[in-house]
From TrEMBL:
<feature type="compositionally biased region" description="Basic and acidic residues">
    <location>
        <begin position="426"/>
        <end position="437"/>
    </location>
</feature>
<dbReference type="InterPro" id="IPR006944">
    <property type="entry name" value="Phage/GTA_portal"/>
</dbReference>
<feature type="region of interest" description="Disordered">
    <location>
        <begin position="416"/>
        <end position="437"/>
    </location>
</feature>
<dbReference type="InterPro" id="IPR006427">
    <property type="entry name" value="Portal_HK97"/>
</dbReference>
<protein>
    <submittedName>
        <fullName>Phage portal protein</fullName>
    </submittedName>
</protein>
<dbReference type="Pfam" id="PF04860">
    <property type="entry name" value="Phage_portal"/>
</dbReference>
């Protein structure tokens, strides 16, 4: 009997679909190829990065031990984590805040395990330490455009790659379970300066590597210096030469009698012609404090933080006079670099192209000045001294989180009033009467 033409020996010899299995094999091969092609920055991250010439190793973990790095990252991440992110709707008159389910995800809790403040702090600190931050977008199904939550991933557990056609994908390695691939439409990815299309270099371990390495070396030297390991404070001299055993005996005897805080002020009794000479601080030792302070400025310069905002008040700042102007400069030149990136990334991943909704951080609280200046600005906005107002009472009360007031939606308008005639100037009626005789 002749075999049917539709019979396929390859199809029945293996389980599943032949086409699907071939597609899976191609994807696995492309995945393995992308894993082998590491960039220079990825290779540096794998070996934890080296410090300066002969210096300590600089990585994200060791950089956290530098107080200036910790303070800068905590300041930037903490400031952004406290900003509200309302949902706005575009209208003919401008924009207005609307009630939307995404507000809870971005301002209260993105998932069951994290609060919104922790989520934003993790995202910002990941970008500063590793160059990129990632958050997976959760949806009810593959075909749904609705968002039900966000799951942040550690940058070391996410590997962007491109397939043979050049399409971008993200390979995620979870704490539990097997690897899986995420489509770029379902991944929030905010890179840093130096982005090459896949990853970005770490600002701390790349741009500030030398400064962080020097700061680590300075901290180690200071630790040894103040624990009497780098240089002794004095020397015991003898009129003649001493053997090694005699010198060790004198040293151990002195430590037994005078070592420790409780024995620090006991009088010393020297015999046999022994004498004590105080050792002066060398020029290199006296410069170690200046070097440490300079590294604080270097680290703050790379991360865009004014030194005075992390406790470094040795020199004056060029950000303007007064704390108010300095705070506004920090928001304008440092925070907005991250805020705009997050706003654009979330807007293009959450909303369709023609959607009238959008997200934006509210900077009103962080840009607010002192109470006197704020009240003066609001008084001018309401209208005063013959000037028309450009804000209503209810708009001002809403900005101050106060309930609206009846008849408070009208702008103050100023009507032109004719000036009163001077006492010596005759009116038009008087002039007409005088002309009539």
């Amino acid at each position: 009997m002749k075999q049917a033409t539709w019979y396929n020996a390859e199809r029945v010899s293996q389980p599943g679909s032949v086409v699907l299995n071939a597609w899976r094999a191609e994807r696995v091969q492309a995945s393995n190829t992308s894993q082998q092609n590491l960039t220079v920055q990825e290779l540096a991250n794998l070996i934890s990065g080296a410090g300066g010439v002969g210096g300590p190793s600089v990585s994200e973990t060791t950089a956290m031990r530098v107080s200036a790095v910790y303070a800068c990252v905590a300041l930037i991440a903490g400031a952004i984590s406290t900003l509200p992110m309302p949902v706005y709707a575009r209208s003919v008159d401008g924009r207005e805040i609307v009630d939307h389910p995404y507000f809870w995800l971005l301002n209260e809790s993105p998932n069951d395990d994290l609060s919104a403040a922790v989520f934003w702090e993790f995202m910002v600190s990941s970008r500063l330490f590793y160059g990129d931050c990632f958050a997976e977008i959760l949806r009810p199904s593959f075909r749904s455009s609705k968002v039900t939550g966000f799951v942040p991933h550690h940058p070391n557990r996410v590997q962007p790659f491109r397939d043979t056609a050049g399409n971008l994908f993200y390979r995620v390695t979870p704490l539990l379970g097997a690897q899986y691939t995420v489509h770029p439409a379902d991944m929030i990815h905010v890179p840093s300066l130096g982005f090459d299309g896949l990853r970005s270099p770490s600002p701390i371990t790349y741009a500030a590597r030398q400064a962080v390495g020097t700061a680590l070396s300075a901290d180690e030297y200071n630790s040894r210096f103040f624990t009497n390991g780098a240089r002794p404070d004095f020397a015991i001299t003898a009129p003649g030469s001493l053997s090694e055993d005699q010198a060790n005996m004198i040293r151990s005897t002195w430590n037994d009698k005078h070592a420790g805080v409780a024995k620090s002020h006991m009088p010393a009794v020297l015999m046999g012609g022994l004498d004590i000479k105080q050792l002066s601080l060398s020029a290199a030792d006296s410069q170690i404090l200046a070097t440490s302070m300079f590294q604080v400025e270097q680290i703050a310069r790379v991360l865009g933080v004014p030194p005075h905002m992390i406790g470094h008040t040795d020199k004056s700042t060029s950000w303007g006079a007064g704390v108010e102007n300095m705070g506004r400069g920090f928001v304008k030149f440092t925070l907005k670099r991250d805020l705009v990136k997050f706003e654009q990334e979330f807007n293009r991943k959450l909303w369709p192209t023609r959607e009238r909704l959008f997200l934006r951080f509210d900077l009103a609280d962080i840009e607010r000045g002192d109470l006197k200046s704020e009240n003066e600005a609001l008084r001018i906005a309401l209208g005063r001294a013959g000037e028309p107002g450009w804000m209503t009472q209810n708009e001002v009360r809403k900005a101050k989180n106060l309930p609206p007031k009846d008849n408070g939606d009208e702008l103050l308008e100023v009507t032109a009033v004719a000036p009163a005639p001077s006492p010596t100037e005759k009116t038009t009626d008087e002039k007409s009467a005088a002309a009539a005789g």
